[in-house]
Amino acid sequence: MKITPIVFITGGSRGIGKAIAEKYISEGWEVISPTRKEMDLSDVNSINQFFKDFHKPINVVINNAGINPIQDIANLNYNDILATTNVNYFAPLLILKNTHRFLLEAMDIRRVVNISSIWAYVSKPGRSIYAMSKTAMFGLTRTAAIEWASDNILVNSVAPGYTNTELTKLNNSPEDIKKIQENIPLRRMAEPSEIAETVFFLGSHKNSYITGQTILVDGGFTCV
Question: Does some domain include residue 203?
Answer without folding.
Answer: yes
